[in-house]
Write a structure and sequence with these properties.
alpha/beta; Rossmann fold; Elongation Factor Tu (Ef-tu), domain 3; 5 helices; six-stranded antiparallel β-sheet; five-stranded parallel β-sheet; globular
């Protein structure tokens, strides 16, 4: 596990909306780059950083998973659902504005020792942010892993994120399964929870790992489903 550095500064490169305009929840993609003359702090896929405003205690700093891959040494990318507080404040900052960063920290998804295995990535909502870091890293070394499948869940079709990016993953032999909790007349995909879609596909736990990220209830439900499918506990990876 990488130990994190003392707090340091980065600057805003860009921020832009990801969720559909009609969606009541606003989700952005935030990009931060190192200050001039400084290098990006290394990290493990799935790790988080704490972001705050330099010299200010309010709004309180918040923890956000890095959504870009460790091999990208130019910037950090984040997928953030906006709420009152630090996420909203940072989203309104102009390019070049400074942000205080603490980290990277946390266990992360250290999948390097599982080369040759199949990889399943399970997440809901903005919980796909740390999983994006994993699949983008796998793309750079696709030959080192077997089957790769993503199971992503969203509240409604309007809440879908990174749709174009996930659609393009078939080019890298990465299977994508998207389900929603509540459908509408435009939705012809699965309706239900991620663990339901996982049970239906029933992957074998042999020579397979699963990375799980999201709300605690979803993580617990997916972990139980994976155990029932024969996954060993040490092959069910959490990033915290």
């Amino acid at each position: 596990m990488l130990t994190h550095s003392p707090p340091f500064f980065m600057r805003v490169t860009s921020s832009g909306r990801l969720a559909m305009p009609e969606c009541s929840d606003v989700v952005i993609k935030l990009v931060l780059e190192p200050m001039p003359g400084e290098k990006l702090q290394p990290f493990i896929s799935g790790q988080v950083v704490r972001l705050g405003l330099p010299g200010l205690k309010r709004p309180s700093p918040g923890y956000f998973a890095i959504a870009s891959e460790p091999e990208n040494d130019c910037h950090y990318e984040f997928v953030i659902k906006l709420a009152d507080g630090i996420s909203k404040t940072i989203s309104d900052m102009e390019p070049g504005a400074r942000v205080e960063v603490d980290g990277p920290m946390g266990k992360g998804f250290d999948i390097g020792s599982y080369q040759g295995s199949d990889v399943y990535l399970l997440g809901v909502g903005t919980g796909i942010a740390p999983l994006r870091s994993v699949w983008r890293s796998i793309i750079r070394q696709r030959e080192n892993y077997g089957k790769v499948a993503i199971f992503a869940g969203f509240l409604t079709p309007l809440h879908q994120l990174l749709t174009d990016e996930m659609d393009a993953l078939s080019e890298y032999a990465i299977e994508v399964n998207v389900s929603v909790t509540t459908g509408d007349e435009s939705w012809d995909g699965p309706i239900g929870f991620v663990q339901d879609a996982l049970s239906e596909h029933a992957p074998s736990g042999e020579n397979t790992i699963a990375c799980v990220a999201g709300m605690s209830t979803m993580v617990d439900a997916c972990t139980e489903t994976l155990q029932n499918l024969g996954f060993n506990d040490d092959h069910i990876l959490l990033n915290h």
